[in-house]
Automatic annotation (TrEMBL):
This is Tat pathway signal sequence domain protein. Residues 35-53 have a biased composition (Basic and acidic residues). Keywords: Membrane, Transmembrane, Transmembrane helix. The chain crosses the membrane at residues 78-95. It comes from the Bacteria.
Length: 380
């Protein structure tokens, strides 16, 4: 087969090429023209050749028509896909308008399963009052819903160290190391996953200066045989794994760490670390109800010039550790925190002590701990 006339045709090559040029020119013209006598003659010859089967198949359409048809087919395919997408979009709008609104620039229809509150800046000074109430109830998907902690930072990253400077004759390098060890202690005592599930806080204990033997021995004795008077929960956050399940992997944390001159004429500095930890929990075994326990720790660490005072390198000396635990059955004396759920409140009334907001970090905490009365929480 060939695109030229067959050998038996009476049309010359020159006539064929002229016909093609005339056809292309006439096809591009906007207005139809009356065919010339020669064009009619050529057309008649082509008609007879087509009847005898002497012309190639598809000679009327040619490559240009096929290419145009290909582009049209592609356009149809594109519009088919767009039609499907449009149908999906209509279905989404009908079923969940909030999701459709969130696609728009500045749309306010955020998915309710996704917290929309922006995180708070780090705390640098004592707040002037308690944080505002937050609407919502905790669930397994949103364990911090309804809590100011929804906007708090998470885990160890929330414990930010201040810039170390020389204080009261104690070098900046020694202050920096003590700040780092203080953070390490807070993390080991309140964020270590094994400790939260009741394990012995070995790393936290190893950070304490062995020269403070009496204090360290008392902590170890409480861990071995806890009592109401010597309950390790006032120093280490621990839940009974047979009773409590931590919900999710996050613990929200807020607080600050500062350095000031210590007591005496010089050579001593004091680190004050004041942090609140919020733990979402449920009953072990897949309980649906989620509640929260809020633990606040205020730690004072003595940092000394080793030329003037005796201390162990790489350890910290705890001058004081005050605690407040919000949502705990209180005075169990078994070494664990026991969060209370709605069923527990129905079984026994709330304590009748002072009403306390566990999120109110404007209150002082010095001296709180084992002697504190069991109060009533305003929220969890």
């Amino acid at each position: 087969m060939t695109d030229k006339p067959s050998e038996g045709s009476s049309i010359s090559d020159e006539e064929w090429e002229k016909f093609v040029r005339d056809a292309e020119r006439d096809g591009a013209s906007a207005a139809p023209k009356e065919p010339s006598a020669r064009a009619r003659m050529v057309t008649e010859r082509l008609r007879r050749q087509e009847a005898r089967g002497e012309l190639p198949a598809g000679w009327r359409t040619g490559p240009a028509w096929q290419e145009t048809n290909g582009r049209s087919a592609r356009r149809r395919k594109v519009w088919s896909v767009l039609g499907v997408l449009l149908a999906v979009a209509v279905a989404v709008i009908a079923l969940k308008p909030s999701a459709a609104l969130s696609w728009l620039p500045g749309g306010s229809g955020a998915d309710p399963d996704t917290p929309s509150a922006s995180p708070l800046e780090g705390e640098t000074t004592r707040p002037s009052g308690a944080p505002a109430d937050v609407a919502g109830q905790p669930t397994r998907k949103q364990p911090f819903a309804g809590s100011p902690a929804e906007r708090w930072a998470t885990g160890a990253d929330a414990i930010e160290l201040p810039k170390a400077k020389a204080v009261s004759g104690v070098s900046a390098a020694r202050i920096e190391n003590a700040l780092r060890l203080t953070k390490k202690f807070l993390v080991a005592a309140n964020l270590d996953r094994d400790v939260l599930y009741g394990a012995e806080p070995k790393e936290a204990l190893a950070l304490l200066d062995p020269l403070s033997k009496k204090y360290v021995d008392r902590l170890r004795a409480g861990l071995r045989r806890p009592t109401v008077e010597n309950d390790p929960k006032w120093n280490f956050t621990r839940f009974d794994p047979d009773e409590i399940e931590l919900v999710g992997t996050e613990v929200r944390v807020r607080g600050r760490m500062t350095v000031e001159p210590g007591e005496g004429k010089g050579g001593r500095a004091l680190i004050r670390a004041d942090y609140t930890f919020v733990y979402p929990v449920a009953k072990a075994g897949g309980g649906e109800e989620v509640t929260r326990t809020i633990v606040r720790r205020a730690v004072q660490v003595d940092v000394v010039d080793p030329v003037k005072y005796q201390a162990t390198e790489g350890r910290i000396w705890l001058l004081d550790l005050s605690s407040e635990i919000g949502n705990d059955a209180c005075r169990q004396g078994d070494g664990f925190i026991h969060p209370r759920f709605q069923a527990d409140l129905y079984a026994s009334p709330e304590p009748s002590g002072e009403v306390v907001d566990p999120y109110d970090r404007s209150r002082g905490l010095d001296g709180a701990g084992t002697d504190s009365e069991c109060g009533t929480l305003s929220r969890t």
